[in-house]
């Protein structure tokens, strides 16, 4: 039986990275970095994709959905709490 191969990665989009948000003299938000230099962060969205040349057997569909759901919950917990194990808090 062929394996189902998934790839987890960030997309190719580049976004600006900032260390702090301040206010300019008119009260508008001002995004700043610590060193005053513009920062570019590669990747805006987290992606999970699979090789579609290998079909998913019917009896693997539900376990695969559960596994992907748990993986995305772990990623969300990591970005929300700094750990994939939010039960620690």
Can you describe this structure?
The structure is a single chain. The chain has 89 residues and is α+β, with helices and mostly antiparallel strands. The radius of gyration is 19 Å and the shape is elongated. The protein is built from 1 helix and 6 strands, in the order ββββββα. β3 (20-23) and β4 form a beta hairpin.
- Poorly predicted spans: none
- Sheet with the most strands, sense and barrel status: 2 strands, antiparallel
Percent range for β-strand residues: 25-35%
What is the radius of gyration? Answer: 19 Å
SSE pattern: EEEEEEH
Helix content: 10-25%
Spatially, the strands of the biggest sheet line up as 1-6
Summed over residues and divided by their number, the pLDDT gives a mean of 80
Q: Give the number of helices.
A: 1
- SS-derived structural category: alpha+beta
Q: How many β-strands, per DSSP?
A: 6
Distance between the first and last residues' Cα: 41 Å
Task: Tally the structural domains.
Answer: 2
Globally, the shape reads: elongated
Supply database-style keywords.
29% strand; alpha+beta; 89 residues; 24% helix; elongated; 6 strands
Layout of helices and strands, plus pairs?
Blueprint lengths: L5 E5 L3 E4 L2 E4 L5 E4 L6 E4 L3 E5 L10 H21 L8
Antiparallel strand pairs: 1-6, 2-5, 3-4
Could you write a compact summary of the structure shown?
This protein is an alpha+beta fold and about 90 residues long. It has one helix spanning about 60-80, and strands at about 5-10, 15, 20-25, 30, 40, 45-50.
